[in-house]
Amino acid sequence: MTTQQTHAGSTTHGRRSMAGVIATMISVATPPFLVGTIAIQVAATIPFSAGQLGLAVAGYYAFSAAFSPLGGRLVQRWGATPSMRLACLGATSGLTAIALADDGTTVVVALSLLGLPNALVQPAANQVLSDTVPARRQGVAFGLVQSAIPSATLLSGALLAFFHTGESWRTAVGIVALLTLGAQLLVRAPQAPAVRRDDARPPLGRPIGGAPLMAALVAGAVLASMAATSLPSFVASSGATRGLTPGQVAAVQVTGSLACIGLRVLASWRGSLLEGWRVLVGVAGMLAVGSLGFALLATPSAALFCVGVVVAYAFGWGWNGLFNLSVSRARAGRVSAATGLTQGGVFFGGVLGPLLFAGVLDLQGVGAAWLVVAVAALAASSSIVLAARQWAGAEAEKECTT
Prior knowledge:
The chain is built from 17 helices and no strands. It is mostly helical.
């Protein structure tokens, strides 16, 4: 077999691996958005309160946060492909339980436990990308995979448009369960890409920056996620206080989700051209711009609110692909374990963010709540800048000793 044929086969396999990763990510990420979207329909047919909805979503992120570091280590031990298959199976089981639920407690327990496969799939996906995608294409790959999260919000909204009467919500949940089964067919065993000179990677060495760098990255992930996860939870109710109709709120949310998807891919692609700590500067810059978007959500103007939604979605929630790319470079050879830690921070922020927002909302109002979110995004940017400085210092020290 010629080198060209080998490279073509590797490219085809890599595309299939990417498709499997994206399908798995969407399957496992959709449940909390879907349950939140169809909550009114669920409550109309079975006992399911707003408090139970909040408990279910918080439980999903809490389980994801608690088990994400363990999930990273399990992926390192089991391999990415078996881990993704197990995550798909867990998602299918949890979604089936929700579709058949006859009380709110079942929904709460099932959605909370769906955090377990979510904790497994994130580090597995990052490991597949690191192992199978050529270095020059990894930026686009990380962006495409992370676009699965806003794609899950779009899928949830689309399903609501078709299944919004009576108990048809069960059909919507069942469709996502079928998607998790379909994802199993796309999951492929990793295959290293054909090596080309422009894809060559440096030999693995000691982790860059040590524990202080990881601590700064995890802190940044927690703060950034606290800000980002407030968007899908509270934009709709906040828009109503600005005089926007449900149709207008839906339109601006769709626009924001599309902007988020586009920027996740674009930022990761362009960021992959940067070297070392400079990738983190891009992450910090996006969070700084995103903080301005969150601040616009605090204004009473409906027009500025709409602009803020799009900016916040694009920049305040579009940093994930670029962030994971930077972690994979800082911890080459330890990608699943390292991203298990940082993803745990993301999930922990997903628990804290909505709770903090709701508390400030009750005490000071919606404007103050969005300002607190803006401060969290700005603090996340500062933490990422600190991580970049630690990375740059480690590189400078290494150059001095060689």
